[in-house]
Design goal:
single chain, 109 residues, alpha+beta, 2 domains, three-stranded antiparallel β-sheet, 3 helices, 3 strands
Length: 109
């Protein structure tokens, strides 16, 4: 029985090492499910996540909030070497835009 509010972030990728598809869940990084088809890998990881959540409820553990439900401010700090900062400042000045706008555009590519 699938979770009613299963809003977690899933991904299926090919594992060259295992020669199978790996189903993954971002909010539960220690879990995975290997299968021969991507569809079965997705189905498997969703089932594993459901079981883990049921166990967490029974033991009173805090269940991870889906990333999609989190509120983001749009702000975060990034440390770069001084020469990178200088080059970005020059590029933004030459482009006539703020450093913040330049870096935001580069990150969104």
């Amino acid at each position: 029985m699938p979770l009613k509010n299963d809003r977690y972030t899933y991904r299926v990728t090919w594992s060259e090492e295992d020669q199978e598809y790996a189903g993954l869940c971002t909010e539960f990084p220690s879990l995975s499910w290997m299968d021969k088809t991507p569809e079965e890998a997705l189905k498997g990881i969703r089932k594993i996540v459901q079981g883990v959540i049921e166990d967490m409820k029974k033991t009173g553990e805090e269940i991870p909030e889906p990333i999609v439900s989190k509120k983001f401010s749009g702000k975060f700090m990034v440390r770069v070497p001084p020469e990178v900062h200088r080059n970005l400042a020059i590029e933004s000045s030459e482009s006539g835009i703020s450093l913040n706008r330049l870096v935001g555009a580069k990150l969104s590519r």
